[in-house]
Amino acid sequence: MKKETSTRSRKASLSARRWHLVDAEGQTVGRLASTVAQVLRGKNNPAFAPHIDNGDFVIVINASRVRFSGNKWQQKMYYHHTEYPGGIRQATAEQVLAKHPEDIVKKAVIGMLPKNAHGRALATKLKIYAGPEHPHAAQQPVLLAV
Question: Which residue range(s) make up the domain with 121?
Fold first, then answer.
């Protein structure tokens, strides 16, 4: 009798998506982003497979109250290009926090996801809000310890 040597992989449609709530108040950005990226990818799931989207939804509240270590508020730079010649733009973390506080957490988490179509699809399951209110109460999110 011959043994079966293939590995069976769970289909993404079989996994039930859960919603997690993360309070970013007082959290260091990198440590917060690392935990959130793992949950988005589904690495906390026993049936993890890198090519399947088995991750959960994550809601981040109080994104305007995150913290950096050291002097990163003044020294860390965020860059983007306007697609015009000479159109490179830069802003410090302090300036980004004043204008778009959600972008600090969003860029940190997206930087920890795969750089392909799968990573872009995972990023759509991330919901970030600057304050404590969010419109996802109907999903009954579970508080995620970070």
Answer: 17-143
Predicted model pTM:
0.89
Write down the residue that tokens 């949950």 correspond to: 39
User: DSSP assignment, residue 27?
Assistant: -
Candidates 38, 137, 29; CA nearest to 76 is: 29
Whether 36 is in a domain gets the answer: yes
Instruction: Tell me the C-alpha to C-alpha distance, in Å, between residue 79 and each of 27, 91, 140.
Output: 23, 7, 36
Question: 26, 69 in Cβ contact below 8 A?
Answer: no
DSSP strand E in 3-95: where? 19-23, 57-61, 77-81, 88-92
SS3 percent helix, strand, coil of the chain, rounded to 5, is: 35, 20, 45
Let me know: does 64 contact 101? Beta carbons within 8 Å. Answer: yes
pLDDT of 73-91, one tens digit each? 999 999 999 999 999 999 9
The per-residue pLDDT for 66 is 97
CA distance 124 to 18: 14
CATH assignment of the domain containing 102: 3.90.1180.10
